[in-house]
């Protein structure tokens, strides 16, 4: 399911000549993983992850598993750069795509707690020009039930991005592609995952707080939680060291290095960067509502069914819940991520890969998340199938 997936460029860009996929480099193991290397759990995890890596031709992966009462499992696989063969490291910065939504919506909910806005306020109160903006609430934007068209599905936007993936985009330019379409359904009646929703929420935060969204998130979300290695770049900036990101038409087809493509088109919906260590902490923070009042977190945790056939997960306010796991995934050119927390087991799983291809209809982090949770929480297996809506 493409829940939190900011889609990449036109197919013509994906057909560029590149190196064949592969992950033949040996795994790099952290000290924490090495201490538990003799355990059957650690061995099972390594074997399962390597199998998925091999079958899906994933260039590189960073995996962290933390579970109450058990030794941490922190390990890297494959390469961060296919040209040089340099291995992945646990300290690398990675683009996290739609996990950005968890930060943007947290910022919005902080303004709710400050009584600056209300979840049932119409978006028209803050942003002009939204189709039927008086009928769409902030809550419906945050839980993906606004009916607004997803701008990244628009053929004209895909063509424009395909012509120049290095372009710097402004939020209003993105919204114009969405607003050229009528509402897809009456607000509040259906679920449809749309990046447009979170772009609008980012503008709400900026208007009410009178601060750039990136500044607000840094000041009131990242800094209080000591997430010093999570950043919201204005454009294609990428802190070092980072992994090279690879996109391609299929797992067995050519891959293209898209590391320097500009993710500004994702902005509040998908432009942020983080590390394994920060995401480990963020998984618990966002799932338990550490930055919010209990009342607001309760609103966030109204995980409504998506209505999509085969999808058991529910979606709340910038979060999903699947078989007990709370969190978000992300995908944009060259990178995929997964950050989930299981409160009942005090378990955290973070997966970061440097490719955004799908394998047999599933995202790479979904396959890895499923393989991991089958071992660590067999009664709470994570699996988020692809959405047919794009």
Describe the protein:
- With 390 residues, the chain is of the alpha+beta class.
- It has one domain (11-376): DD-peptidase/beta-lactamase superfamily (Beta-lactamase).
- 32% of the residues lie in helices and 15% in strands.
- It contains 13 helices and 15 strands.
- It has helices at residues 11-14, 31-35, 40-56, 100-113, 138-142, 155-163, 171-179, 195-209, 213-222, 267-270, 276-288, 294-300, 364-376; strands spanning 28-29, 60-67, 73-78, 94-95, 246-247, 256-257, 273-274, 304-305, 314-315, 320-322, 325-332, 335-342, 347-353, 358-359, 362-363.
- A hairpin with a 2-residue loop joins strand 11 (325-332) and strand 12.
- Helix 4 (100-113) packs across helix 8 (195-209).
- The longest helix is centred in the N-terminal third of the chain and has 17 residues, at 40-56.
- Mean pLDDT is 90; it is low at 1-38.
Largest sheet: 9 strands, antiparallel
- Major beta sheet, strand line-up: 1-3-2-13-12-11-10-9-8
Overall pLDDT confidence? 90
The span between the termini is 9 Å
Quote the beta fraction: 5-15%
From the spread of the alpha carbons, the general shape counts as: globular
Quickly give the CATH architecture.
3-Layer(aba) Sandwich
Show unreliable segments. Answer: 1-38
Distinct helical segment count? 13
Q: What class would the helix/strand composition place it in?
A: alpha+beta
The CATH H-level superfamily is DD-peptidase/beta-lactamase superfamily
Radius of gyration: 20 Å
Quick one: CATH class?
Alpha Beta
- The CATH topology, please? Beta-lactamase
Q: From N to C, what is the helix and strand string? A: HEHHEEEHHHHHHEEHEHHEEEEEEEEH
Helix content: 25-40%
Total number of domains: 1
- Topology, number of strands: 15
């Amino acid at each position: 399911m493409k829940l939190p997936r900011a889609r990449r460029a036109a197919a013509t860009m994906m057909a560029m000549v590149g190196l064949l996929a592969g992950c033949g480099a040996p795994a790099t193991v952290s000290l924490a993983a090495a201490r538990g290397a003799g355990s059957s759990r650690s061995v099972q995890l390594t074997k399962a992850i390597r199998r998925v890596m091999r079958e899906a031709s994933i260039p590189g992966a960073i995996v962290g598993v933390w579970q109450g009462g058990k030794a941490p499992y922190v390990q890297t696989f494959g390469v961060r750069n296919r040209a040089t063969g340099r291995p992945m490291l646990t300290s690398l910065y990675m683009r996290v795509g739609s996990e950005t939504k968890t930060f943007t919506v947290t910022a919005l909910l902080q303004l709710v707690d400050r009584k600056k806005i209300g979840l049932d306020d119409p978006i028209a109160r803050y942003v002009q020009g939204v189709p039927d903006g008086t009928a769409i609430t902030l809550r419906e934007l945050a839980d993906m039930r606004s009916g607004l068209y997803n701008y990244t599905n628009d053929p004209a936007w895909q063509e424009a991005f395909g012509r120049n993936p290095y372009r710097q985009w402004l939020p209003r330019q993105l919204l114009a592609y969405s607003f050229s379409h009528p509402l897809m359904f009456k607000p509040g009646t259906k679920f449809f995952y749309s990046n447009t929703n979170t772009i609008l929420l980012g503008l709400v935060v900026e208007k009410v707080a009178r601060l750039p969204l990136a500044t607000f998130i840094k000041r009131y979300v990242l800094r209080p939680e000591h997430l010093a290695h999570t950043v919201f770049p204005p454009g294609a900036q990428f802190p070092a060291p980072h992994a090279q990101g690879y996109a391609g038409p299929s797992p067995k087809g050519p891959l293209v290095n898209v590391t320097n493509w500009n993710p500004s088109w994702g902005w509040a919906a998908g432009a942020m960067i983080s590390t394994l260590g920060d995401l480990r902490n963020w998984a618990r923070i966002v799932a338990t509502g550490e930055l919010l009042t209990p009342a607001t977190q309760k609103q966030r945790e109204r995980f409504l069914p998506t209505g999509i056939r085969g999808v058991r997960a529910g979606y709340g306010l910038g979060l999903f819940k699947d078989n007990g796991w709370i969190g978000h995934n992300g995908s944009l050119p060259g990178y995929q991520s997964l950050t989930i927390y299981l409160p009942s087991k005090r378990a955290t799983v973070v997966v970061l890969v440097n490719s955004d291809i799908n394998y047999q209809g599933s995202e790479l982090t979904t396959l890895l998340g499923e393989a991991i949770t089958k071992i660590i929480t067999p009664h709470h297996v994570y699996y988020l199938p692809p959405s047919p809506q794009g």
